Amino acid sequence: MLPYLGAVFFGANPYALLVSYIRSDFAEQLACAIFPLVLLTALRLAGLLYGETPKRSAAPLFALPFAAVWLCNAPAGVIASYSVALLFAWPAFSQRSWRIALRAAGGLALGFGLAGFYLLPAAYEQRWVNIGQAVAGGLLPDQNFLFTRIADAEHTWFNWISSSCAIALILLTGLAALSSRRLGKDQKLAQYSKSVWASLLVLGSAATLMMFPVTAPLWSLLPKMLFVQFPWRWMSVLAVVCVCFLAAAMERRRGWLWLASVVILSFPLGYFLTQNTWWDPDEMPTQQAAIQSGTGYEGVDEYDPLGDDHLDLPKHAPLAEIFKAESDNLAGRPVVATIRIETWETNNHKLFVDSSAQARVALRLLNYPAWQVTVNGKTATPEKPDDLDQMLVPVEAGKSEIEVRFVRTPDQTAGIALSILSLLVAASLLAPRKSLNA
User: How far apart are CA 34 and CA 46, in angstroms?
Assistant: First the structure.
C-alpha cells in the first residue's frame, strides 16, 4: 500500500504542481516521472539494496531510464547525471570500494551511449547557434536562487512562488527523514541498509544546497550546469528523496497522520498555483493558427544561427521571392522572374525559377550548416543579406531548379553509430546466460 501512496504523493508533490500549472513544461515533467526508476536502478547498480547482489543486467537496467531522462529534457538530464554521480560517489568513497566506482562508470557510459544519437549532435552543433542566449536575460542561475529579486517584477513574483514550493518540499523532506528514524540506531530497522538512507540523505542535502547562493561557484565550474538555468529545478530530485523518507515515516505508528497532512496541504497549494498561472487563454489557438496558415511563430534566441537575430526577420514573408538589393540591379533594369514551388516540407524544399537575369532567390529559411543546396543538380553555396542569416540562393538567367535538403551531418552519423553499439552492449548484458550443465 505504501508504494502506491508514495507514487500518488510524487505525482502531486509541490514541484510537479509547479511544473504543471505554472510552467507547463511537460517535457521536464516526463523526465521527472522517470527519476524514481533512475534512483532505484542506481541503488541496485551500486549494490546498496538490502539482500541484493549486483548482476550483469544492473548496468543496462540503469542505463535505459538514465538515457530516457536525457531524451526527454536536457536540463533534467544534467541534473540526473550529477545526482547519480553523487549517489555512486558517496558509497564508493565511504566504503572505499572500487567495484562500485567501476560499475557506476560503466552504467553511466552505457547510458550516455544509448542517448548518443541525440547527445553527440546536441553537443557538437552548439557551435552553429547562439547557445549562449540560453543563459541571458533573467535565465542565469544567480538570478534564480531561492527568493532572489531582480528588476523584473514578474520574474521576482514567479521566483517567489517557486521558492515557496521549494521551502515547503525542503521542510517536508527534513521532517519525514527525522520521523522515519531510518538513520538512527534502532535494531528493529536492521533489515534496512543504512547505506541506502545515508545516500538518500546526502543526495537530498546536495539538492537543497544547490538552490541557495552558497553553491554559486559550482554553477559556474561544473560542466553544463549553467544550462540548468534555474536552481529550483533541483526540487525534481528532492521530491524523489522526500517520497522515500515519507513512505518510511508512514510505516511507523500513526503514519496515517502523515498521509492526512500531505493531502490537506496539497489542496491549497494546488489551488494557489492554478489561480496564479500567467498563460493567456488565446495563446494556444494563436499558435495553432500561425502553424496552419504557414506564417510560423516567433522562435527563441539560442537556436538562431550564429550572427542572426530572429527578431529582425521579416514577418509574413513569402516562402520564396527574388531578393531586391541595389547590388542586384547594376544594369538599371528590374529582374523579372516567376517562381513555382513544387515541394515545401520540413526537410525538403524544391522550386523552379525562371528569371530574366542573374538574381538571388530569398527563401524563408535560415542558413544552418545541415542544409544542402543544389541548383540544376549542382551544389551551390547559399549567401545571406548583410543584416540577417536568411538563405539567398544565386541563380543564372533562364530556368533554374532549386532543391534544398536538410541532410545528415557526420556528427549525427557518429551519434547513431554510438547508440547502436551501446544498444548491442546492453542487449548482450541483458541476454540470459546458457547453463554450463545444459
Answer: 18
Q: Is the pLDDT of residue 438 over 50?
A: no
By residue range, what is the domain housing residue 400?
301-407
59, 77, 57: which is closest to 67 by C-alpha? 77
Let me know if residue 422 belongs to a domain.
Answer: no
**Residue 332 CB neighbours (<10 A):** 5
Instruction: Determine contact, residues 87/203, Cβ cutoff 8 Å.
Output: yes
b/e map 404-414, b = 16+ CB within 10 Å:
beeeebeebee
* 117 and 414 Cβ atoms separated by less than 8 Å: no
The secondary structure of residue 130, as a DSSP letter, is: T
**What are the distances in angstroms from CA 360 to CA 66, 256, 400?**
48, 73, 11
Q: What's the CA gap between 143 and 156, in Å, rounded?
A: 9
Is residue 433 a part of any domain in this protein?
no
> To 5 degrees, how large is the angle CA 56–CA 58–CA 62?
145
In angstroms, the CA 42 to CA 181 distance is 23
Helix (H, G, I), strand (E, B) or coil at 54: coil
358: its cell numbers: 542573374
Cα 65 to Cα 41: distance, rounded to the nearest angstrom? 8
pLDDT interval class at 187 (50, 70, 90): very low
> 422-435: per-residue pLDDT in tens?
999 999 999 887 65
Q: Are residues 315 and 270 in the same domain?
A: no
Check if the beta carbon of residue 390 is closer than 8 Å to that of residue 417: no
Q: How far is CA 285 from the centre of its chain?
A: 25
> Do 41 and 76 belong to one domain?
yes
Query: Are residues 268 and 220 part of one domain?
Result: yes
How many domains in the chain?
2
Looking at the structure, do residues 61 and 210 belong to the same domain, yes or no?
yes
Q: What is the pLDDT of residues 204-255, one digit of tens each?
A: 999 999 999 999 999 999 999 999 999 999 999 999 999 988 888 887 667 6
Is residue 364 scored above 60 in pLDDT? Answer: yes
- pTM, two decimal places: 0.90
Same domain as 185, residue 327: no
Rounded Cα gap, residues 281 and 62, in angstroms:
41
What's the CA gap between 85 and 70, in Å, rounded? 15
For 44-48, 191-195, 226-230, 250-254, which range has the lowest pLDDT when averaged over its residues? 191-195
CATH number for 380: 2.60.420
Give phi and psi for 7, each to the nearest 5: -65, -40
